[in-house]
Write a structure and sequence with these properties.
The chain is mainly α. The chain has 12 helices and 4 strands; from the N terminus they run αααββααααβαβαααα.
Length: 339
């Protein structure tokens, strides 16, 4: 059965990722069984919350996956000053990582990530709050908000028909959340070269970037993110599909267009849409328009099992981006507030 095979493959891939990328796990670091003794029902609680919510609103699956991505793909810009023989300034970026910074509410002294224009359409905060509330009743101060986001995204993917995989747990929550850190989230107008460069900065290969883009098999895009393609007669856009997009935008910037014809099902329809020149965003269609990524798109369109396998491996890898461990982070009492 495919699900069983994918589960076994996922466990193997975690080990491979740890070895290939040189990731080490200390005694208090990330482990598959991190909560076995301290909060044995943690994963069940999160999964039940996700399943209940998605039974009522299956569109929320896309929101949870997007929240996980936006939490992990954050960079902090830092300015360094060197006073050696010559005065020099350098601007460096550091990955912020999967630390639940996207959940933090703004205060009068700080505008947090969630109020960035890139994050205003994120959904799923209430579900995370509900899961955290029950976990705090069962195991106070044990399960981090960062782990809840990662587990919720994983469970949402499986609920929607995608692969089942496990992830190491033990992430700690970060103590920083600033709107300026969201400036380097991938833009919907990126071309393939820009996507390859940005994902490469986070350690992802071209293949992994195309696989992660397949998360757009779930959900919708708002007109404001693709309307610039319409008046310029984008040569990579099917003329009939352009009319569909124009019809969507006639209802305003917030009008929604599904990424593919099965917006709530995790499958490979997204890649087949790209082959038909029916990718919604520039950053979608560029994957088929570019010779460097076209073959990967075609492969996933033909072989859903291969897409599932590569996607789950890339998601596990993403969930490990610059995680906080031990004293480098905290376990928030409330996901919306730093302790």
């Amino acid at each position: 059965m495919i699900v069983d095979n994918m589960f076994g493959a996922a466990l193997v891939s975690v080990v491979a990722i740890m070895v290939i990328n040189g990731i080490t796990f200390e005694a208090d670091g990330l482990r598959m069984d991190y909560y076995t003794m301290s909060c044995p029902f943690a994963e069940m609680i999160v999964k039940n919350k996700v399943n209940t919510a998605l039974q009522s609103d299956p569109t929320l699956a896309a929101g949870l996956v997007r929240m996980h991505f936006h939490d992990c793909f954050i960079e902090v810009l830092s300015l360094s000053l060197s006073l050696s023989l010559s005065l020099s300034l350098s601007l460096k970026t550091a990955v912020h990582g999967c630390d639940a910074s996207v959940l933090v509410d703004s205060t009068k002294d700080n505008t947090a990530e969630k109020d960035s224009p890139a994050n205003l359409s994120l959904r799923g905060y209430e579900l995370i709050d509900d899961a955290k509330g029950q976990l705090e009743q069962q195991c106070p101060g044990v399960v981090s908000c960062a782990d809840i986001i990662a587990m919720a995204a994983r469970d949402a993917i499986f609920f929607a028909g995608g692969p089942v995989y496990d992830i190491p747990k033990g992430r700690k929550d970060g103590r920083r959340s600033k709107i300026g850190d969201t400036i380097n989230l991938p833009s919907p107008s990126f071309n393939s070269s820009e996507l390859i460069r940005m994902f490469g900065q986070h350690g992802f290969s071209v293949q992994e970037m195309v696989a992660l883009s397949g998360a757009h098999t779930l959900g919708v895009a708002r007109c404001s993110s693709f309307k610039t393609r319409l008046p310029n007669a984008d040569p990579n856009l099917d003329s009939n599909f352009a009319k569909t997009l124009s019809g969507t935008c006639s209802r305003g910037d917030n009008a929604e267009q599904p990424f593919d014809m099965s917006r709530n099902d995790f499958d490979n329809d997204y890649y087949n849409a790209l082959i038909r020149k029916a990718g919604v965003l520039t950053s979608d269609q560029t994957l088929y328009a570019s010779a460097r990524t076209r073959g990967i798109v075609s492969g996933y369109a033909l072989n859903q099992a291969m897409f599932f396998f590569d996607f789950q491996n890339a998601m596990i890898k993403m969930s490990l981006l610059d995680v906080k461990e031990g004293s480098k982070g905290e376990v928030r009492q409330n996901c919306r507030n730093i302790n």
